[in-house]
């Protein structure tokens, strides 16, 4: 048994196999991370908002967990493979190689419009926007981090309010409902009860 373990350790530490094994490990890490993130989220959301039998709820949780884990695993595989191929072709890794690998992986794995993919892509989009708001400080266009976030926040709120009042059908239904409740339903009341307690 020790000789098998030693042979396996020697294999995974051989430099010639590093690129291939990094793809395998990327697949593994995507699978594990996706399951760790999605399972508790799907479980809580199912218990809070789904009123079906236990079997249907368990099926939904496991299906969402499987999809999230599988998607991250396949994206990691495609991304790392394309990165390695580009590096070998050009002799070095260039800054835009990661962009191209992400572009292809994102299209292949996350291009299907479904609930899990939407949540992942929207999560990434929000983090990208925060990153872009910090970029002027990093590039010395602005000197203080406190200068960028207020601009970012005001533009985000300006855009969402414009869309809500002028093109609301392009917003997600849950966002439309929450904005309807806060900004439009608050314009109507007929007595003290629906002013203080119930909207309608």
Automatic annotation (TrEMBL):
GO cellular component, one term: peroxisomal membrane
Record keywords: Membrane, Transmembrane, Transmembrane helix
Superkingdom as given in the UniProt entry: Eukaryota
Keyword Lyase applies: no
Pfam families listed in its UniProt record: Tim17
Cleaved signal peptide residues: none
Regions crossing the membrane: 149-165
PANTHER family referenced in this protein's UniProt entry, alphabetically: PEROXISOMAL MEMBRANE PROTEIN 4
Protein name: Peroxisomal membrane protein 4
Organism whose genome encodes this protein: Lunasporangiospora selenospora
């Amino acid at each position: 048994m020790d000789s098998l373990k030693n042979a396996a350790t020697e294999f995974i530490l051989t430099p010639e196999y590093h690129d291939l094994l990094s793809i395998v490990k990327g697949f593994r890490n995507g699978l594990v991370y996706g399951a760790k993130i999605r399972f508790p989220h799907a479980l809580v959301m199912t218990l809070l908002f789904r009123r079906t039998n236990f079997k249907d709820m368990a099926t939904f949780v496991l299906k969402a967990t499987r999809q999230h884990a599988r998607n991250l695993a396949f994206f990691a595989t495609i991304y790392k493979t394309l990165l390695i191929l580009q590096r070998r072709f050009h002799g070095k890794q260039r800054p835009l190689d990661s962009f191209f690998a992400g572009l292809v992986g994102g299209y292949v794995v996350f291009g299907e419009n479904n609930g899990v993919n939407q949540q992942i892509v929207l999560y990434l989009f929000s983090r990208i926007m925060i990153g872009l708001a910090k970029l002027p400080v990093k590039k010395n266009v602005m000197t203080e981090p406190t200068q960028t976030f207020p601009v970012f926040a005001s533009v985000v709120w300006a855009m969402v309010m414009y869309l809500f009042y002028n093109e609301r059908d392009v917003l997600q239904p849950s966002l439309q409902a929450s904005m309807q409740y806060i900004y439009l339903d608050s314009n109507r009341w007929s007595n003290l009860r629906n002013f203080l307690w119930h909207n309608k």
